[in-house]
Design goal:
- This protein is α/β, with parallel strands linked by helices.
- Among the domains are: about 50 residues, no CATH class; about 140 residues, Rossmann fold, CATH 3.40.50.1400.
- It contains 11 helices and 8 strands.
- The strands form 2 sheets. A 4-stranded parallel sheet has the order 2-1-3-4, sandwiched between helices. It has a 4-stranded parallel sheet with strand order 6-5-7-8, with helices on both faces.
- Strand 3, helix 5 and strand 4 form a beta-alpha-beta unit.
- Helix 6 crosses helix 8, helix 6 runs antiparallel to helix 11 and helix 9 runs parallel beside helix 10.
C-alpha cells in the first residue's frame, strides 16, 4: 500500500500500512448519511418543553429580531406560559408506549428504510443515521458518532423539500458549527431542496390518489398547507414561497386536477408580523362559509407527521372548517416512511453520493 491509500485500507484491525507500529488503529473508511429534521422535546412536561422551545425560539434563523430586544421577551414572558400550551398539544399526540413524539418515531423509521436500501446497493461501507436541529439526538452528537465509525465523508440531508432559512439553513448552520469543533473534519456535502424532484412529486400525488380513492365523496378542494413564515422573508430573498408554489403546481399537473381544485395556504403563524397568506385556518373557514362542504388538506413541506399536522391540521384547522359549516374534512398524512417516499429520498441520495461510492 502506498501513502496515497485511503485511511483504514491498511492492515487487518484498521492500522495504516505506512504508519508506525504504535499508531492508533483507524476504522475502515466509510461514507455517512445524516437525515436531519426539525426536532422534538424529550417529554411533554413544563421543563422539557421549556428547554426545547428555548433552543428553538432562540435561533436567530427562526426569530431574527435583535437579541437584546427578543431575549427578555422570550425568557420572561413567552417561556413562562408557552411550555404549558405546547405541552398540552404534544401530549395529545404523544406515543406513550414508546414515550416519544411521532416525529421521532417516523424519522427513525425513515432512517431504517433508507439505510436498508443504501446497504443493499452499496454494502456496509455506508452508515445512515438521523439528527435533530433542536433536541435529541443532536446534530453534533450524530456527526461525532459517524466520525468515530470511520466516516471520512458525510452527506447531510435536511428533510425539507422546500428551502427556507428557518429550516434548511439553520440545519446546515448547526452541522457546520459541529464541524468547526473537529480537529480532523470529514468531507461534507449538504443536499439541496428537492421541491420539484419528480419522485417526490409522484410520491405526493400517490398519497392524494390513495386518500381520494378511499372516500365516498370527492373533495371539492385540495389545500396544500405549508408552514408559514413572515412575509418580509420573501422580499429579503428567501425562495421558500416560490418553491411552495412550484410544488403545488407540479402536484396539480401530475394529478390532472383543474387549477380551481387546488389552493396554496400557509399555517403555524407565530408573533405579530404579517405572514405568508392565505392562512390555512382562515381559508378553510372562508371556504365553508361560501358553501364548500368537502375539502382535503395535504402538507407537502413536512416530511413526517408532527405536532403541526397531527394537532394543528387535525385539530384547530379541522375545527375551523367544521365550525363554519363544512361537512367533510380529510387530512392526507405526510409521506412518512411510505415506500414511494423512501424511493424518492434514496434516489436523491444516490445523486448526491455520486463519486463517493
Amino acid at each position: 500500500m502506498t501513502e496515497t491509500s485511503k485511511p483504514g485500507e491498511g492492515t487487518p484491525g484498521g492500522r495504516l500500512a505506512f504508519a508506525p507500529s504504535n499508531h492508533p488503529t483507524v476504522p475502515p473508511a466509510r461514507v455517512g448519511v445524516i437525515l436531519a429534521n426539525l426536532g422534538t422535546p424529550d417529554a411533554t412536561d413544563y421543563w422539557s418543553m421549556r428547554r426545547y422551545l428555548n433552543e428553538f425560539l432562540s435561533d436567530q434563523r427562526v426569530i431574527d429580531y435583535p437579541r437584546w430586544k427578543w431575549q427578555p421577551l422570550l425568557q420572561l414572558v413567552i417561556l413562562s406560559r408557552r411550555p404549558f400550551s405546547s405541552g398540552r398539544n404534544y401530549a395529545g399526540i404523544w406515543d406513550k408506549e414508546r414515550n416519544e413524539s411521532p416525529l421521532l418515531t417516523i424519522t427513525r423509521a425513515q432512517t431504517d428504510a433508507v439505510a436498508r436500501a443504501l446497504r443493499e446497493a452499496h454494502g456496509e461501507r455506508i452508515v445512515v443515521d438521523f439528527a435533530m436541529r433542536y433536541g435529541n439526538p443532536s446534530t453534533e452528537s450524530v456527526i461525532a458518532k459517524l466520525v468515530d465509525q470511520g466516516c471520512d465523508r458525510i452527506v447531510f440531508f435536511p428533510l425539507y423539500p422546500q428551502y427556507a432559512a428557518p429550516t434548511t439553513a439553520t440545519a446546515n448552520d448547526q452541522a457546520f458549527r459541529a464541524l468547526m469543533k473537529l480537529r480532523w473534519q470529514p468531507a461534507f456535502r449538504t443536499v439541496p431542496a428537492y421541491y420539484d424532484d419528480p419522485l417526490y412529486i409522484d410520491a405526493l400525488a400517490r398519497s392524494v390518489e390513495r386518500a381520494y380513492g378511499g372516500l365516498a365523496n370527492r373533495p371539492e378542494m385540495l389545500l396544500t398547507s405549508y408552514h408559514g413564515m413572515p412575509e418580509r422573508y420573501l422580499s429579503e430573498g428567501d425562495p421558500y414561497h416560490c418553491q411552495c408554489q412550484a410544488t403545488t403546481r407540479l402536484l396539480r399537473e401530475r394529478l390532472g386536477f383543474a387549477a380551481e381544485e387546488v389552493r396554496v395556504t400557509f399555517q403555524s403563524r407565530f408573533g405579530p408580523e404579517e405572514w405568508l397568506k392565505p392562512y390555512t385556518v382562515e381559508e378553510v373557514a372562508r371556504l365553508a362559509r361560501e358553501g364548500t362542504k368537502r375539502i382535503a388538506v395535504v402538507a407537502p413541506a413536512f416530511s413526517a407527521d408532527c405536532v403541526e399536522t397531527l394537532e394543528e391540521i387535525q385539530g384547530e384547522i379541522r375545527h375551523a372548517f367544521e365550525g363554519a359549516g363544512g361537512e367533510e374534512f380529510t387530512y392526507i398524512p405526510c409521506l412518512n416512511d411510505e415506500e414511494a417516499h423512501i424511493r424518492a429520498l434514496v434516489s436523491i441520495l444516490d445523486r448526491e453520493l455520486a463519486g463517493w461510492l
